[in-house]
Amino acid sequence: MFIGAGYAWGGDVALGYIATILAIFTVYVRAAAKIAGSPDEFCGPMAKQHRMLVITIACLYSVIVPRSWQIFHLDGLDVGIISLALTLIIAGCVITVVPRYKRIRIIPRPLRIKLIVGEPLNFAATPNNREGWSQTARNLGSRVGELAAR
What we know:
Blueprint (H helix, E strand, L loop, with lengths): L1 H6 L5 H23 L12 H17 L6 E4 L2 E4 H25 L24 H20 L1
Antiparallel strand pairs: 1-2
Helix pairs in contact: 2-4, 3-4
């Protein structure tokens, strides 16, 4: 969506790509926190709903007002409303990633894992046919049950 906005009137292609990459990175940080055990958090000044609001307002503004009002002239610099929205999204994504990253760092990590390994099993004498395979499955099942009971 942001790449397309970069190609729009008053947009900038580079800003569109940068906004897209940072939006994906913002989602990546949230997903990494979720995998690490954190609950889903849609916090920060430029979470998905905020990014969509900014670009929607910019698009609605572009539809409603004449084209001459969509470019702002600031000390010799011409800035389109879409470029302004993409810049706001870029800055917001950078600011949003910081608190999300801090939350990942304070997530409690799992405690020690106790791994129990039983005696090695030898299946050299077991025949390589259906009956032998069934015997192996039964043997493994009983051994796993014994390990689980420890």
